[in-house]
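TL;DR need structure tokens for one chain.
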Amino acid sequence: MKYANYRSIFRMYEYIQPFLKYSLPLEEKLPAEKILVIAPHQDDESIGCGGTIAKHISQGGTAEIVFCTSDQNYERMTETEQAAKVLGSKLNYFLQFEIRSLYQNIDKLSDRFITLFERANPEIIFLPFMIDNHQDHISISKAFLKAYKKKKTDCLIYAYSVWSTPVPNVIVDISNHWETKKKAIECYQTQIATRDYVTMAASISRYWAVTKGKNMQYCETFFKATASSYAHLVKKIL
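>> reply
TL;DR here they are.
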């Protein structure tokens, strides 16, 4: 299945209900030092969770980013390196799968994940939410499940959204790091030439900030779960 169907979406709301709260808890600091960010495409990390990455690093944490696909464009590769530098990531991995090919390469991707998880030993893994509306994004969760079955990893999952309405259970204030996130997104000139990702990200961030209140300007939201819980949900829903 390339995309999430309506049946999957209905199941999702049923299964994740116990994880949700009426009032989103605000996390001032991630409960870990080492994070690994999985980006299906070169720009998802900045759009989906760039503010939280920058905030985490400013608080003394470390972040490594995995870029799963590539369009073999030298200019975009340069943009990616610049964006990662802006966010503060000093170690990045480029898996070089073709764009829109991940659903055909779940086994290979899961094996790469196992190797990366063993190498990076992350305490938190950021990845796209399991029904984020892009076939490559959905494939990340499927590959994670397969990797988890082969070799369990003891960490937290923070699932972010780019192409769908998020179903969050935690919120992060990125007001002081919005300009860093914006600058990282703006590194991707080849991408924002056709779609205004800065305005898109700003609008979503402002929506959640206003919803939460507390005089915040920009926020990012995540679906937070243990690795075992997230793997179980992926199995049930997808």
